[in-house]
Every structure is written in structure tokens, then in C-alpha cells.
Automatic annotation (TrEMBL):
GO terms for molecular function: mRNA binding; structural constituent of ribosome. It holds the Pfam family S1. Residues 128-188, 198-272 form the S1 motif domain. The keyword Ion transport does not apply. Keywords: Signal. One of its GO terms (biological process) is translation. This is FTSH10 protein. PANTHER family: 30S RIBOSOMAL PROTEIN S1 (PTHR10724), S1 RNA-BINDING DOMAIN-CONTAINING PROTEIN 1 (PTHR10724:SF10). Residues 1-27 form the signal peptide. The gene is FTSH10.
Length: 376
């Protein structure tokens, strides 16, 4: 299936969380698949017991498509009261909205087993991990995607042309960040590209005041330039008393996206140095590191905190000089102090980009075995 991703830069968008509440009784049917006995009480591992709507986004169920006619489908969305849902029929890929759960939806014998088998462990969903999912909802700013986790994921309008997507469509990408209780997705290959992973965009200054620079940003996925703001403390390292003394109207600048202010439809940006060139290593070094066991722990020294995480020197190659690597902030909990000695393991190696990513000893990053294949 074609992956309709467009652009390579990240935008941090807010999105709604689907809350599932209130009990909903199951309705028996004389169709080809009968619901489970005792379905009012839910005993499937990992799912709420009693007093909760049994239906979940991502479940494969049967929907009544006509008189005594039941067809397999996947649940895309469930209302907060559990009474209505949206589904996509697996045989035709047609989407039907506002389906009455009580009268037209029933579980099959393998609904819950299949749902559990398709779920991903939250600890495995770290930046750079590749995932696939199904678009469950579209709005002007984002596409919301079920990637097989209990936490909703979304794809921002700066990352893809949302007009090329449709509800029920399968997409693939990478975890970019976990913010405000949701996973931000990026196009495949983003995490291995320095410019893409650090969200660099070209912009030019259109106005300035004492406290910030106002810029227009060339954003892939957006037809017109997007408005952005760079606060004084994000123009450069050190104290900036007046932003007007740093840049003039018309100046071209390189910026990184920190977040998206959805109500005002503008980007919050930074121009500060991200130290990204400091953790590039030679091709020969990368190849040697590739052969190292992923579970082995190595001694490392935390050098500096960067925009992408922590720059560390790791004793990866025995008597040779320490190797520079990046310890992403998501893989370093709790945050290590500068100059501290820690133990890390190799989480990912990108030979083409000359990048080595490591994870702190207590992190679960890089344990690919946690990613289960999607079924169906």
C-alpha cells in the first residue's frame, strides 16, 4: 500500500483522547458468529472488568450489514458512552460511521485474543521505533492513528499531506516523541536523518520585538508559509536581553520546532545550537559498533545536554578512545547529571548517517522483541 507521507519535519500537535466509559451490555445474535457467553463481565487480560464498555478501538468484530448479515470489520472509534462506533469493513475497506453498538456490533470468538495479541508494550515505543497503524480520525491539523497501543498516536499536518489520507487507511512511520500523553509519528527514515530528527526548517524574520522574533516558516505539507515565534531565550545560548539586537527583519534563519500552538495556529521555535555534529562518527567505527551485543552494558560519561538528549562518551571499543553517541532523553530516566558516570547499551546504529544511539541501563529502549506483529 502506498504510504502517503509528505514532508519530513515534525510538528507537535495536540489531539483529543478517546475515553471509554459506562457499561454496555452485549446483544446476542443468530448470525454465523455468536458472541461469547457471559459477555457482560469482561475477563480478558489487560481489559477493564465489569462496568466498562467492552468495545475498544482496534478490535476486530462483526457488524450487522443487512438482515441476518454480519460482516467482519475493525473498530476505528468508540464514543465516550460506548453506544456508537465507527468501523471499517475488512473485506471492502468501506467506512461506516455512527453504528449502534448494542444492536449492530458483536464480538467473535477470537475478538479479545486477537486484540490482546495486537497490542504493543508501551515501554517499546521509543523514538525511532517503526510502527504501522490505521487512520481512525482526520481533522484540519492531524490524522489520528491506532498503532496497537493503549495510547493514541497522531500525524501532524506538517509531516504529511492530510488530504491524501482517509479514515481506515493503513500507514507506516516511526515514533518521534511522546508528549502530553500521546505518540507523535514521523515518516519512516526520519530518525536516521539528522536534519529530520532535529526538526530543522528554513525561515525568515518578518517582525521583531524585545521578547521574540516573528518568522515565517517553509513547512512541508503546508501550502503557505506557517507563522512561528522564536522567544529571546531560544535565539542562542546565553542571555538575550533584546531580540531585536540579534536579528533583523528579512534575515534568513534555521529553526527547530519545539511545539505547535494549535489555538493560534503558529509554531514555537528555537534557533539554539543542538550539538548535532558532535555525535557523528566514522563509518569504520559505526561498523564495528554494529557487531556489538545489544544487551551488553558499557561505561559512559555524560558530557552535555542537547536539544535531542544527552551527548555521551562511551567505552565501546576496548582500549580505543571513547566513542561519541546520543542518549535520547526518553531513554535516560531519571535524567543523568552532567559529568556523571553511567552504564549504557547500544540501542540503534545507523551506518549511513554515522549515528549511534544508546540507552541507559534501566531503559527498555532497543528491545525489539516487545514489538509484536500486527494480525489481520
Amino acid at each position: 500500500m502506498t504510504r502517503p507521507w509528505r514532508g519530513t519535519h515534525l510538528a507537535f500537535l495536540t489531539c483529543a483522547v478517546l475515553l471509554l466509559s459506562e457499561p454496555q451490555a452485549w446483544r446476542r445474535s443468530s448470525g454465523s458468529h455468536r458472541p461469547l457467553e457471559g459477555c457482560a463481565v469482561l475477563h480478558s487480560p489487560g481489559l477493564p472488568a465489569a462496568k466498562k464498555s467492552w468495545l475498544r478501538t482496534g478490535m476486530f468484530v462483526d457488524a450487522m450489514a443487512g438482515p441476518k448479515t454480519w460482516k467482519p470489520c475493525r473498530v476505528l472509534h468508540v464514543t465516550t458512552d460506548g453506544k456508537v462506533c465507527h468501523v471499517v469493513y475488512t473485506e471492502t475497506n468501506n467506512v461506516e460511521r455512527n453504528v449502534d453498538v448494542k444492536d449492530r456490533i458483536k464480538a467473535t470468538r477470537d475478538t479479545f485474543a486477537r486484540y490482546e495479541a495486537s497490542r504493543l508494550e508501551e515501554s517499546s515505543l521509543v523514538p525511532g521505533v517503526r510502527v504501522t497503524g490505521v487512520v481512525t480520525k482526520l481533522d484540519d491539523f492531524a490524522a489520528f492513528v491506532d498503532i496497537g497501543s493503549e495510547t493514541e498516536a497522531f500525524l501532524g499536518y506538517l509531516e504529511a499531506n492530510l488530504s491524501d489520507l482517509k479514515v481506515g487507511q493503513e500507514v507506516a512511520g516511526e515514533i518521534a516523541a511522546h508528549r502530553s500523553g500521546r505518540y507523535q509519528l514521523a515518516a519512516e527514515g526520519t530518525f536516521s536523518s539528522e536534519d529530520k530528527a532535529l526538526h530543522r526548517l528554513h525561515a525568515w524574520v518578518v517582525d521583531a520585538d524585545r521578547f521574540c522574533l516573528h518568522v515565517n516558516v517553509e513547512a512541508p505539507g503546508a501550502v503557505d508559509p506557517v507563522q512561528g515565534v522564536v522567544h529571546a531565550n531560544e535565539i542562542r545560548d546565553g542571555y538575550v536581553g533584546d531580540a531585536r539586537s540579534e536579528r533583523q527583519v528579512g534575515d534568513e534563519v534555521q529553526v527547530r520546532v519545539l511545539e505547535v500552538d494549535v489555538p493560534s495556529k503558529r509554531l514555537v521555535l528555537s534557533m539554539r545550537h543542538d550539538y548535532s555534529n558532535a555525535w557523528k562518527v566514522s563509518t569504520d567505527t559505526v561498523r564495528q559498533v554494529t557487531s556489538l551485543p545489544r544487551r551488553k552494558l558499557f561505561k559512559a560519561t555524560v558530557e552535555v545536554e542537547t536539544a535531542a538528549g544527552y551527548l555521551v562518551s562511551v567505552d565501546l571499543l576496548g582500549d580505543r578512545d571513547p566513542v561519541r553517541a546520543l542518549l535520547p532523553a526518553a531513554w535516560a530516566q531519571p535524567p543523568p547529571p552532567i559529568d556523571s558516570k553511567i552504564r549504557v547499551r547500544v540501542a540503534d546504529v545507523d551506518e549511513a548517517a554515522g549515528r549511534i544511539l544508546v540507552a541507559a541501563a534501566q531503559s527498555s529502549a532497543g528491545k525489539k522483541k516487545c514489538l509484536r506483529p500486527r494480525r489481520g
